[in-house]
Amino acid sequence: MFQAMIDGLLGLTTGFTSLHWSNPVMIAVGGLLLFLGIKKDIEPLLLVPIGFGAILINIPAAGLMEEEGFLRVIYNMGIATELFPLLIFIGIGAMTDFGPLLENPKIFLLGAAGQFGIFLTIGLALLFGFSQLDAVAIGIIGACDGPTAIYVSSKYAPHLLGAVSVAAYSYMSLVPIIQPPIMRALTTQKERTVRMDIETKPASKTARIMFPIVVTIVGGLIAPQGLPLLGTIMLGNLMKESGVVARLSKASENEITNVVTLLLGISIGATMEGKAFLKFQTLLI
User: Taking the domains of the chain in order of start, what are their residue ranges?
Assistant: First the structure.
């Protein structure tokens, strides 16, 4: 009886005795992400669940990422299968208005120019000694697109998912801070005050409906590997523009996206276990 009581009391110290030095560090990192999301309002929809997930996974002896652990179940269900990012893309499609693009197709060039960041980041990753697949996952950070970074990382470099996701969303949140001084350096005061009047013809409803269908077919034939991302975002947009499935469109835009964002964030945080995360590679990313 007395021995059982001692064993029970010793069991209360299991978490403390199992701590590795990296666990408190990552708990602090999780706390920092929570601070940035809550106090500084930096990408709170993802940084809050990611930060809390990082805290959870760094409490030892809980078994959250073991075979039957609830974080492992969520991870296997949505990250390992690449389902969560695709569901997010349906929601993004339902929120997106391609009208300005259809009215002024020349702005396609702006989108094309924005992809140069990918190749620059891939080149830097290869220069720092990352493997080709790791460099591909890291390179998507240059697109400043969080969901795509998550999808590509989970597909080609799942061991880098946490680092790439945090880097991508941190980069996205810093864009409004980084851009103004660059724009002021590259333009004069007079150039910044120029008003550009653009006359465009409103896109017809038929064009808005046909656009996601045509883009899916043509884009899928050109780049079949990218069809999951392209197809899901265009499905969401088609539901929005058709106007006949308002319930599905609103659910994709709101409830489904909100729930998936929560699960996605916790799953990413679950990959940030101290021993695996605190590496020189993470700092390079």
Answer: 18-190+202-284
